[in-house]
Amino acid sequence: MPNQNKPLPPLDEITPHILRFWKARLTDKAIVQELRKVIDTDRYGIRITKLKEIRSDMGLKRARQQGHSVETIHDAMVDLRQIYPHAGSREMISLLFHEREMAVPRSVMKSYFATYEPDLFGLALHTGIEPFSGRIMWMRIWHSNKNPQLILSYYLDTLTELGHMPLVTQSDLGTENFGIANAHTLLHQWHDPALQGTLQHRWMRTKKNVMPEIMWSQLRRHFTPGFKNLLDTGMELNVYKDRVNNTAKRRDRNKVLPHGIPDMIYNSPEDFGALDFKINIESDAIDHICRVYINPSHAVFDLVPLTLGHHLTFCYAHLGCPVITRDSAWRVYLDLLNAIQLSDDLPAEIITATHDNELPLLNNHEDLPFQDDDNNSYYMGGVRGGRGLDVSHHTQLDALLADDEPDVQHTDAASDDDFNGLIVWEFIDDEGDDSGDEW
After folding, report:
1. Cβ atoms < 10 Å from Cβ of 88
2. For a Cys-Cys bond, which of 21, 37, 393, 436 suits 31, CB 3.0-4.6 Å?
């Protein structure tokens, strides 16, 4: 039906969607198409000309409207290059858009590069990724990533925020991941008692936990080299996560999974020819798991343990309480580290490692079945207890394909099971391979 004679949807209903599609850097035409999927088109209508007016009122201006030049982006570029010194032209355009709300043409960025033109400090990264869409579920930095309670808290925080969970989780084989394995299994069994006796977690062995490893490598290359210059800015990884989740990756003809904006693939898998296996989760279930597995008074949840904090304050005073600025932060840190290393009365948190981090796996639970074939294809999902799609699922997929051909690149060797990645979240930890000041 034509849209011109229909009233606009209430602005408070469509502006959040407009902002979401804007962050995904969709064209006005594409935004209108996506809006028509979420509004009642029998009652309401929206055209590109009206969208432009609404977008303008929201302060969302395209590159031509913003009219940036090499000079107007200079200060923002200088700041961002301190954090992302190795980012290329394409990534800097994305950074300016997501972190500074600046829409910059490629020609201006090219002119900037033509005109103008380091390890961190014992912190640990943990990240969770949904591999079908490539969406980053969480990125956290703390003084440890080996405590299963801490790692589990990241997962439970994410479930609370989303209100749903995957069919299975997966990780590398480390005891710090036992908390998630146990908790997710119990949560899934809470909602489906038929799963009793089966661990709803996959252990990704050698060279199988690839996607988190790639994300870790990219973060180290683009983010960490300049991060030490910003100790006083309060910079958060959430900004990095948000930018990645709303930026399409380069097309890869060898990639079987869909190409597009990770956030949009995750939230609307049917638009990419995929089924949605997310499980709505009850808040009572999460509260129960927290009571069973998380001790909120555990020292691992303290940013700085009390006795260690006192010792750091003493060492800082011994240095003369130097003023900490962007220019001095790294030097103050190194001096403080040296003072601690030379100290004769180190607190117990530094001298000894705690041994209360172990959490055993659930008893009497079998692993999900592992299905491998002669073509080196394998299914690592959780549909039908790990057995994969059945006839009804294939019927649903056929209906999606018949309704609208998705923008998914296939290869001759691809099998149906290659499209089941939506059901798995995977995560990784890394504290570096060296014994020095590694992130």
Report:
1. 11
2. 21
Q: Give the count of alpha carbons within 13 A of 138, CB side only.
A: 23
Determine the distance from the C-alpha atom of residue 127 to the mean position of all C-alpha atoms in its chain, rounded to a whole number: 7
Least Cα distance to 79 among 263, 212, 235, 184 occurs for 235
Distance CA 373, CA 264 (A): 32
What one-character DSSP code corresponds to residue 3? S
Mean residue pLDDT across the chain:
78
**DSSP secondary structure letters along 84-116:** -TT--HHHHHHHHHHHH-----HHHHHHHHHH-
In whole angstroms, give the CA distance from residue 358 to residue 74.
50
CA-CA distance, 380 to 212, in Å (whole number)? 16
Is the Cβ–Cβ distance between 138 and 236 less than 8 Å?
no
Tokens linked to 307: 């006795």
Q: Would you place residue 377 in the very low, low, confident or very high pLDDT band (cuts 50, 70, 90)?
A: low
At 96, the pLDDT band (50, 70, 90 cuts) reads: very high
The residue type of 31 is I
The whole-angstrom separation of Cα 294 and Cα 296 is 6
Note the Cα 1 to chain centre separation in Å: 39
Quote the CA–CA distance of 429 and 216 in Å, as a whole number.
9
CB contact set of 152 (below 8 Å; sequence gap of 6+): 179, 180, 183, 289, 293, 294
* 349, 256 Cβ separation under 8 angstroms: no
The predicted-structure confidence for 378-405, as pLDDT tens digits, reads as follows 666 677 776 777 788 778 777 777 765 5
Q: Where are the beta strands (DSSP E) in 83-204?
A: 124-130, 135-142, 164-165, 168-171, 201-203
Which is more confident, 267 or 411?
267
With beta carbons less than 8 A apart as the criterion, state whether 138 and 157 touch: yes
pLDDT tens digits, residue range 198-254?
999 988 764 455 555 555 555 555 554 454 444 333 356 778 788 889 998 777 776
Using CA atoms, how far apart are residues 151 and 127, in angstroms rounded to an integer?
10
Q: Which residues contact 241 (CB under 8 A, 6 or more apart)?
A: 136, 138, 139
